[in-house]
Design goal:
The protein has about 180 residues and is of the alpha/beta class. It is globular, with a radius of gyration of 16 Å.
Length: about 180
């Protein structure tokens, strides 16, 4: 799916407030796409205040919704521990589980806002790109998925982080 394929659709994009989130959101809006950002509050330790994401995303012009999924994540994490689900006997499989909780929790919020496409900025180098797409396909087969880093037009415009940062700076958005 390409940016041009999103015309006339409302897109719910999973955002963190980072460089990728801001670049993709701003680029979609610039392309005339109706975009709403969504963040899952899983009580992630890298966010001292999840509301900072709202501040970081504000310059993109897209509204952002924070969906409280802490209880869902706690329940899923307990199932992981109960099942002793570890990667190769090492760390707990809570990262993969967090993506399932995130997609499950955000899909309802996106659909309530009239979104017909879930967008994400997960790179093709990891499992998250597949997780976002597969969970969406299973939980809401009527929803389309826009994987930004598989869009050849976006990749041409943003071959690296420098180009994304320059794009944002040109628009007065902090990279």
């Amino acid at each position: 799916m390409r940016i041009g394929d999103l015309e006339g659709r409302k897109v719910g994009i999973c955002v963190s407030g980072g460089l990728d989130s801001k670049s993709v959101t701003a680029r979609l809006r610039e392309g005339g796409v109706d975009v709403v950002g969504f963040t899952a509050d899983l009580a992630q330790p890298d966010e001292t205040d999840v509301n900072d994401i709202l501040r970081r995303m504000e310059p993109t012009g897209a509204p952002v919704r924070i969906v409280d999924l802490k209880q869902s994540m706690a329940g899923a994490a307990m199932l992981v521990i109960k099942a002793q689900a570890r990667y190769d006997g090492g760390y707990w499989n809570t990262t993969g589980m967090a993506r399932a909780v995130t997609v499950h929790g955000l899909l309802g919020a996106m659909q309530a806002e009239g979104c017909s496409v879930l967008a994400h900025g997960a790179t093709g180098r990891g499992n998250d790109q597949v997780r976002f797409e597969r969970y969406t396909n299973v939980l809401a087969p009527e929803m389309k998925v826009y994987a930004a880093w598989r869009d050849p037009d976006l990749l041409k415009q943003f071959p690296g982080r420098r180009e994304m940062a320059a794009y944002l700076r040109e628009r007065g958005i902090e990279a």
